[in-house]
Amino acid sequence: MTTAPTARENAVGTAHTRVEGRDKVTGAARYAGEIPFADLAHGWLVLSTVARGRIRSIDTADVLAMPGVVAVLHHGNAPRVETGYVGMLGVPDPTSAVFQHDRVPHAGWPVALVVADTSEQAREAAEALVVHYEQEPHDVDFTGEHPDAYPVDSHGPAVIEKGDLEAELAASAVVVDAEYTTPEEHHNPMEPHAATARWDGGRLELVDSNQGTFWVASELAKMFSLDPASVRVRSEHVGGGFGSKGLRAHQVAAVMAATELHRPVRVVMTRRQMFSLAGYRSPTRQRLRLGADADGRLRALEHRSLSATSTVHEFIESAAGPARTMYGADAHHTANRLVRLDVPTPTWMRAPGEAPGSFALESAFDELAEKCGLDPIELRARNDPEAGPVSGLPFSGRNLIACFREGARRFGWADRDPRPGLRREGRLLLGTGTAAASFPAGAGPSTAAVTAEADGTYTVRINAADIGTGARTAMTLVAADALRTAPDQVRVRIGDSDLGPAFIAGGSMGTRSWAWAVTIAAEELRERLALGADIPPEGITVRSDSTEAIGALAQKERHSFGAQFAEVAVDPATGEVRVRRMLGIFAAGRIVNPLTARNQFVGGMTWGISMALHEEAVRDRALGSHYGADLAGYHVAAHADVPAIEADWIDDPDPDDPVGIKGIGEIGIVGAAAAIANAVWHATGVRHRDLPIRPDRVLMAGVRA
Amino acid sequence: MAPAPSSTSSDITLNINGEKHTLPVDHRTTLLDALRERLDLTGTKKGCDQGQCGACTVLLDGRRAVSCLQLAVAAEGREITTIEGLADGDRLHPVQQAFLDLDGYQCGYCTPGQICSAIAVIEEHAAGWPSAVTDDVRPEAGPPPLSPEEIRERMSGNLCRCGAYVSIAQAVARAAEAKTGEAAA
């Protein structure tokens, strides 16, 4: 038969419930640790209790004699793996290449994997395993002086210095000079990292929870020196990622054990283990110096950021990056530096760089507005650049001020009295604050295949990862429009490395990257079908690869933008800060599915509340490990912390993207903590430059009303 | 692999979603692990395994409980309802339907716990139980309106790291309204 175009609405831009929604609300959706395998063995990781040193010996004999225990893997007997390669996202963090040597570079370093028939047996044996260490002095103190800190490039150069900073500061009528800090923060997706490895007919199969199966499969192939075609990684449902679900110790340990034992092995991190194995956001110390004329026009902007990494791998939290996009100044200096400590390696965490960087930059802008006697929105409008402040490149679209105007209208900003400490409700002090948001808009090369089936329906194969973003649904809508059909005629398959290369769910780039490849294939298929070809029983399949199209993109400043607004109530008697309402207005490209997009923006803003008021992982200097590494000790926002949050957007399609998408996964958190901190100042008259704004900090700082 | 009955294991019978399941369990096995690892009822999720996140919430004799802090051997004789037991064939429970319609989730991992908790919240509220944010707790005051603030307070044992709280609370409110409407009709 031939496929005739059916009458339809535009699917993209219309609210659509999730295609896998029914499975998620009935418990039918199976996550990585939930697929049954015959003869499954359970692995339990044993982590170091010292922060630096050497493993002297491991007493495996007693543990091997325990019921059900089948193996103890450690540096003395584990297979050797390759780490001297460059993967899709750079050189691997040796933290994931477990059991290769006797060195311990941080507390919570994997030293052994105990494998047993049941998880109870594995856990008991793992807890009973005695490991002897030669302990060495460690340093986990980020707050001290670090003369050995050094600049590290990431997406951009570590240091960019344009103009004479000291001269412009000296010539400025108004100067803000302040230091801001953000603490160590952890992703804590609700689903702990889990992987089951097995060999099946000469192929390594991994059922995993990750943000990109092709990425993880290619890393494992390189690490274990396997033909890439002999590794398959599946990740059907993923219980959150936020940057933490790439290649990690548990997958490598599971593959090692499955290889040694010739049976399927599952390794699941405990919540406590996630605090040292799953990556985290480094703490930052940031110094801002802003110099402006009396009318608020910037003459000088300096943003210097210090973050930490492990002794084994370089990862930098580039918090000074956003200033290069946001504001122009005659002298514009930004620098990202790194210090090495005896701690785990940090990693990408929702809006890496932008989240902590925007807290400092957007707080400093609020301070500058106060000093200039200007409305904070007006100050930003006066410093809104025509082109990239550092690059000089044109913006692909910069609707920041439009977001502020729309947000101000809806939030009721015009009625705001800028003076702090004036509004009371009983003993509570009320205040409002605002801040700008931005996040890079990018796309990564991907492949897709779209098949016109003989029954008139379509199958889309795109190796996307749905970590909660609604990727499956978004691809269904994108494909339906490109095929000029209805969404219910489209089936989408994702989360399987056998589907081929595709970009990861990361960098707010997933949906755009996948949609690009799907659109190319679907449009070509539609053209072929329009010729009236008969569809054979196996269907007609068109494949695409977006590499060339993405490579042809002109160099521009490509970003999403947004304006955040928050109202808080501060209790001066208890120091408690409560967020009463938030509004975010975003210019973030074409919105594919308004239902899931709104949820994702609001989710990011909820992270902003959490970052501003709750999250803080505290390291014990003496032990080198965390206090309270669990969800009771590490607070994330709960239901009661989250008021009515509204998110909306203005029309802002990307002119250079086939669907008009920019990406929305991260911008919701950017600027949100600053908007809350600025509201706390407005309520109390006191600037809080250290996150989180804990009750004790509010009490100690007092009120300047 | 099932251990043989001994001083450290027992045969038990669990009543789950109206069906009896007899199985040998290691005495250390939590109800959560018995459901997930032994009975293939993986809808109940393990988020922290120490009673701090609520992902493993089930209904025990109609009241919510975190199944990670419950030993399987202690759940004998209780009526256990999990996420798999809520729908009536193809017809979703009104709370499930509201979560689906209003996008009361993102990654879906906390969802079964949120839904079980929400069902209990609506029951607890209807039975007149006050919460920490209830203004008037005198028995004669009757149940307070199930305001957004009441819903948020009562649902606070269920963490959602994706930050879908706003739509979850809306879904709970919608399901509660539907139930009130049903009761009035």
UniProtKB/TrEMBL annotation, chain B:
Residues 10-86 form the 2Fe-2S ferredoxin-type domain. The lineage of its organism: Bacteria, Bacillati, Actinomycetota, Actinomycetes, Kitasatosporales. SUPFAM superfamilies: 2Fe-2S ferredoxin-like, CO dehydrogenase ISP C-domain like. Keywords: Iron, Metal-binding, Oxidoreductase. This is 2Fe-2S iron-sulfur cluster-binding protein. Pfam families: Fer2, Fer2_2. InterPro entries: 2Fe-2S-bd, 2Fe-2S-bd_dom_sf, 2Fe-2S_ferredoxin-like_sf, 2Fe-2S_ferredoxin-type, 2Fe2S_fd_BS, Aldehyde_Oxdr_Iron-Sulfur, Beta-grasp_dom_sf. Transmembrane segments: none annotated. PROSITE patterns: 2FE2S_FER_1, 2FE2S_FER_2.
